[in-house]
Amino acid sequence: MDTFFTDEYFMRIALSEAKEAYDKGEIPVGAIVVANNQIIAKSHNLTELLHDVTAHAEIQAISSAANYLNAKYLKNCTLFVTLEPCQMCAGALYWSQITKVVYGASDDKRGYKAIGGQLHPKTEVVYGVLEQECTALMKSFFENKRK
Amino acid sequence: MDTFFTDEYFMRIALSEAKEAYDKGEIPVGAIVVANNQIIAKSHNLTELLHDVTAHAEIQAISSAANYLNAKYLKNCTLFVTLEPCQMCAGALYWSQITKVVYGASDDKRGYKAIGGQLHPKTEVVYGVLEQECTALMKSFFENKRK
């Protein structure tokens, strides 16, 4: 079972969420929250549709997972997201004390590492999972936008 | 007119929102968004009630103001908040490109300045407005909690 539920397995589901955002003309970022190998939240970026800068995939996923758990701390949960979180989302993850964050592509301009943000010291971070696919989707989106 | 609508005037309204949070057992932070001297959003921290770490006063105020304006960028808007924004809220304010942020009390532990977060370079920042009252409300809350 453990070899089936790999980080790549779950990132592929986050990537399918990102593709849904892409199809709606949203910057293609997708996220899921997993607890005990069960997906308890799925979301994708909806900032354009909702006219709301806070509607990043991660913020929605954190709120949704907390609602599912009826608890504000996401203990024993992992967030999979296709792009490195920005400072806003890193801050939300910090407050959630989430156990693990896995992201695909790095964001050297607006990612929390570049800005100087922080995740919670207890949070394990893994990155570069399906990086090429996550990056390719973003590149395709911005190339199409420039056309 | 301009002498009536001072930063202190609006911060006092944010402070009344913070007191509403206090009365609900929430960490007492209140926020309002003002455009052309008109209040277009009012909110207070609801993280306990909603079991949601993203339910800070600022995040709710940003979403609410954007909903009112039907636009994701808060141009010509000012956010008044009783406490220095955390990195999550600073990130949301960054994305909103809000024109001005006014805060009361500083937060030397979890404020965006201590964490290393950033507001948008175009955003004007004013702080220390009704600082003593904003700080006193926070102190009273945590002193009561320890009892």
TrEMBL record, chains A, B:
The keyword Zinc applies. Its cofactor is Zn(2+). One of its GO terms (molecular function) is zinc ion binding. The keyword Metal-binding applies. The active site is at 58 (proton donor). GO terms for biological process: tRNA wobble adenosine to inosine editing. It is an enzyme of class 3 (hydrolase). It catalyses: adenosine(34) in tRNA + H2O + H(+) = inosine(34) in tRNA + NH4(+). Zn(2+) binds at residues 56, 86, 89. Residues 5-119 form the CMP/dCMP-type deaminase domain. Its EC number is 3.5.4.33. Binds 1 zinc ion per subunit. Pfam families: dCMP_cyt_deam_1 (PF00383). Keywords: Hydrolase, Metal-binding, tRNA processing, Zinc. Homodimer. Belongs to the cytidine and deoxycytidylate deaminase family. ADAT2 subfamily. PANTHER family: CYTOSINE DEAMINASE FAMILY MEMBER (PTHR11079), TRNA-SPECIFIC ADENOSINE DEAMINASE (PTHR11079:SF202). Catalyzes the deamination of adenosine to inosine at the wobble position 34 of tRNA(Arg2). This is tRNA-specific adenosine deaminase. It comes from Myroides profundi.
